[in-house]
Records
---
Amino acid sequence: MKTVATAFAALVFLSLATPPDARAQPPRRPFLFKDARGELAQARARGESEVVLVMAAMPGRNARLAAAVEGMGGRIGFRFDEVDYLRAWVPLDRVEELVAHPDVHSVDLSITGRSRSFGLADDEPELPGDVSVASAPGLRSAAGHRPAAPVPSPDTIWPPVLSDQPLRNRYSPLGDMRAIDWRERNPTWDGRGVTIAMIDMLPDMLLPELQTARGLAGEEVPKIAVYRNVLDPEIEDNGWWLEMDDMVEAAGGGFVYRDSAYTAPRDGVFRIAMFDEVRADTMGVYGSSLERDVNRDGNPEGSSRLFAVLWDEGAGEVWVDTDQDRDFTDETLMGDYAERPGFGVFGTDDPGTPVRESVGFGVQIDRERGRVALNLGIASHGTLVVGAVLASRGEAGRFEGVAPGARLAAVGEGGSAYGQTEATIVAASHPDVDVVYFEQSSNITRNYLLRDGRLVPSVIADRLVERYGASIFSPTTSPSSAPSTTS
């Protein structure tokens, strides 16, 4: 529904400037900056043989660049010719050669799980030589010395006693964005008929505020239109993607796998793998606290941490043994969310407790690579951001966002340049998406201080705006947000 995107953007982003029109192609950047060269040096010191590059090819030359990468012994991980984007593993000793290739517009290293080699550590500038930091609070010298922390008073209570004031008087962005008056004057301009894509990690889809949206005619429709991730498990393996390599054949209503007997949903041939809750929250980029306990049972002694996942590849049907009883007949039939919208649940909630003892998940299928992902709705940051934008109180909710009628396209991006670029590609190219809300990671753009539009995510964002017409926004409070980092 891109025809109503402008009206919706005015509602949701009243306090923001109108995004610029797609501008002319920025100049090429056929070289690496110091931080990227430092990453190459560290990769060599670690004994690595290849690095992950994200690349914007010159317009119309993506196929030629892909061929050049493969000719240098590289491996293509993701390719999107519509905006001339590539991600590839490239041999270390060929990186500089590739960067200077005439078909390259811009190149960045995609770093995962660590800060840049020459990054701005802790956002604190360094002082030259032996300049005293005592006279400059919050700064440190090049020797790495920090100012001493203040000594608390003997009467200080630590840790401080937390008040319930924030819970009793919740902050709402509606007033600051002047959306309350707007909606009173325009009660049907509540985002209905519009889909917002959130580039963050995946929110808690079980919340009552994320259940219903409205179509253009005012009818209720499911709130979540898209629920998927763009993580590559070879780069960021958080246990969500399962390699469905093993196969079983069910006959007479059952089969045996790893010396255990299972009850099958029906007879036939299936792919099978085990989802391990110990690995399900191990990357530390999602703002969650699962404590490696997906079904919230407290991990009693002797309990299993594994959940069998069954996939009928031909039918695109998936079952998850969420209760670990080795019986798939009592489980919900699921599939890729794009084809069979619906969510499963690990654990059973106790309504008598203040927290929910259950975790929701969606299914995603990668048929080409033979993988199935269980996308957990556990990101607290992603949840609070989408809630502020499009939460809908409905019958059981407690608050509303700026545009409660809007639908959500949730695209989980991880914490690296490749994920955020590819999540934006997935979102902006989706036919139903009108607005892309890009929650940037400072790990990606913080070191690129030029802000000249030649960072690969910026180049690709410009091309997406020009080709698909989606508006791409970034929050003004993000530590990495600045002109030319989004479009």
---
Amino acid sequence: MCNFIWPVNICSHCAITLYFTECLQFARYICYYKARKEELDVSKSQIVREIAEENNGIVTTAEAAERGVESWYFTEMVREGTLEKVKHGVYFMGEAGGYDDLYVMQLRSRRAVYSYQTALYLHDLADRIPYMNEATVPQGYNASHLDGMIVHYVKKEWYEIGITECSTIMGNTVKAYDMERTICDLIRDRKNQDSEIFRKAIHIYMESEKKDIWKLREYAEQFGISGKLEDILQVI
């Protein structure tokens, strides 16, 4: 409604004319504001879609903020059904066809490195998907937020040995231990490993063209399991 102040010493006809003129200007302003808002919304929506396309459906508020999209805008997109909230600060654009759990989990913790059976799966050293994903963090790290997965703790000086990057089945890049480090981890913790999974992993690794026996022996020496490794290699 127009907040019109009636001028002093003005005829009623002129006053009415001024009143409707101001109302018309106000209406034009409202129309411009709505059109501008819709234009900005479309622009921001396009930015979010571009981020989703670049990350196989995943959008984070941090990355969107770098491109000028405020966090409150995500609430609107969730309400509209355009986005699905996965975790705090992490969203999924539904039309991309299912979010990448391995990628999302690592967004929550950059220190978590996929290891053991999850690393076997990423390196095609296992023929089945792990029942629960496994990751390794350095001792002293608070991993309480990594619910729904098995977390292993190692000495800080061992943590970075063998860290590499792998592609998930959905094409996202995640951190995992390389094949040699993974084999060493299985040997170190052999008593807690499924014997069939352990045997198949060793066999597939030895048949792989990507294997690096010298690196495997180097890692084994650092972990103090050279004797155990050589016993296994002799049997194979």
---
Amino acid sequence: MKEKEDIEVPESEWSRGQREFVGSTFPTPKGGVLTVVGVNSGTKSNGRHWGQKFNLTCSICSEEKGLWPYGSISSTKNNLEKGKTPCGCRKVNKYSLRDFIGFTITTPRGGTLTVTRMEKHGNVNRFVCNCSICSQDKELWPEGSINTLKSFLEKGTAPCGCTRTPRWTKRQYKVKVERECKTRGFEFLGFVEDWKGKDTKLILKDLETKEIWKSTSIHKFLTDGIGNPYEAQRRKLKGVMSRKYYDNDERIILKSKYPEGSTFKLLKRDKWEVTCSKCKDDFYSHVDGGRFKTFIGSLLRGVKSCRCSSNHIWSQEEREAEMRHLLAPDNGEFLWWKSPKGYENAHSKFVWRCHRGHVTDSSVNTIKSKSRCRYCKKEDMIARGWANGYMPDKKEKLDNLYILNFNNLYGKIGRAFDIGVRIRKGEGLSKLSGVAADNIKVCHVFTGTHEEVYWVEQMVISRLRREGLSEDRYSWNTELFLDGYEDYVRECVNQLSVLKEV
């Protein structure tokens, strides 16, 4: 602790203003009184004096000499006159780093956490603590392992195992797993993969059966009590096989949820074949005859494997039959699956021929949603006058002509009722071009009726092509022009005197 003469300017060196201010008193928010007793001699790191900074005593805090020694309470005249309190009597008591040693909080488990020292971790001050409960376990919580920031301690957050959701480190998890293995007759051989916290898989060995497995995560092993999966399978199979079941067994019929009249046939061990009374007469019965494979466990739990179930796993043959059935009214012909793997799920695509002879591809979901040939749709739109984005039935609707710049690569002219949606949503300009939406700049916008906007757009695009300003290196769109010509395109639009610039 510093002596008084080391932290205070001698009275003989005080200025007149300082002499007049010494002895002033100021009330604190907690009912104490601050008294100015001297001039502080401290300096900043740059060597300059603090100036008008005075040493103070508090009628409450200064009674605690260890926490508030002489000279630790100091402030400038300006701050004191503003009502700022430099001691523990302030409204929000924020301890200095030095004063924080010895600070205690009560943990959720009833332990006492005490700050013992401060350590510098780079530019961050971390406080090392001792927990009356956790620190007893030296292997799990060695000296210095319980540490945290000052702000967390002030909030009452415990950094040890007493918190409701401890954040265990990789080393601590290893200790906990090894302890659990000793009690359950296992051996811990390491971690399977990159560290993923409590979801990291373990390599475990059963010391009795010598079996090794890698499927159990830390959380499931420590919290859920999951052990040897091979042993669990043996117990399950033993329980099932200890009971004898027969074809169309009354016990199975009562517990299964198949439609009335369904039949059950034992194939081998716990594998069964079910003939669903409803599915054997549906449209797909020519594919499988309404027969489905399942297991005794599923039957006893009421899990159905037939098409009556919303979770039915469709086979490739079933899906082909369904697609042929849906395409038949439009004279469509299923050809082949697009992927070499064939059918995988409802997003799988297949190639088919429409009634006009177009060969196209669609996903299962697309056909089920009643969408059909994209080429036929385009032909029909042209026949109705819908060409190159022109929509006759919306010719009087307010529309926008835009001039965009794509990350200083090229420009684009086009039209859209909602420019923001045209850029960002779904198959918008951002996805088509591969340029992030934030890098697509809207340079100029004009407005008019849809018919006017369409006419101006086509006139300007034709002019740009004649003058050699089209950008042909990018194939995703035909309305692109060379970078840097945005203002020239704007002049072309204005010369037509049709649209109003926004």
